[in-house]
Every structure is written in C-alpha cells, then in structure tokens.
Write a structure and sequence with these properties.
By secondary structure, the protein is an alpha/beta fold. Helices cover 19% and strands 23% of the residues. The protein contains 2 helices and 5 strands; from the N terminus they run βββαβαβ. The strands form 2 sheets. It has a 3-stranded parallel β-sheet, with no helix packed on it. The protein has a two-stranded antiparallel ribbon with strand order 1-2. The longest helix has 10 residues, at 56-65. The radius of gyration is 14 Å and the shape is globular.
C-alpha cells in the first residue's frame, strides 16, 4: 500500500483508503485552497461542508463549484499564532 506524507505541510494522505471512511453529517475543510478537496466532497455528497480559508480564490471556488451543496464559508486563517496580513 502506497502512503503519502508531505514533509513541507505535515499532511498525511492515503486517498485510496477514502472509501473506507465512515459516513458523516458535516465535513470541515480547513485550508480549502484554490481547488477545494474534491476527493472528500465527492466521498461525502450529502455532508454539510464547513469551509475555512483566508484567500479570495477559496471563496470563489466555493461559490462557483458548490452551488448544489449545503456549505458555510468562513474567510479566516487558522494557525498557531494570531496575526493579520495585508
């Protein structure tokens, strides 16, 4: 079984195993990015999506691609320290 661990981000992904995840009512995606996480959105088509990301592109993605889904978008950054970037 091939596993993926990204040193730069510290994220572990094992996308082939996504089908084994249990059903859920709500999916929280922190760090939506410009293209979202379609593998998760497709796996949980009925889940309410809570999307959190500070960039405009993430908000545009949600508005343009998730109109048929129930979702909430929060334009905030999430991290280990408080700061404001302009």
């Amino acid at each position: 079984m091939k596993k993926y661990f990204y040193e730069k981000t510290g994220i572990y992904n094992d996308w082939p195993q996504i089908k084994n995840l249990p059903s859920i009512d709500t999916l929280i995606d922190i760090g939506v990015g410009k293209e979202g996480t379609p593998e998760l959105y497709d796996r949980f088509p009925k889940a309410h999506l809570i999307l959190i990301d500070p960039i405009d592109e993430a908000e545009y993605f949600a508005k343009n691609n998730l109109s048929s889904r129930k979702y909430s978008f929060f334009k905030y950054g999430v991290g280990d320290r408080e700061e404001i970037q302009t």
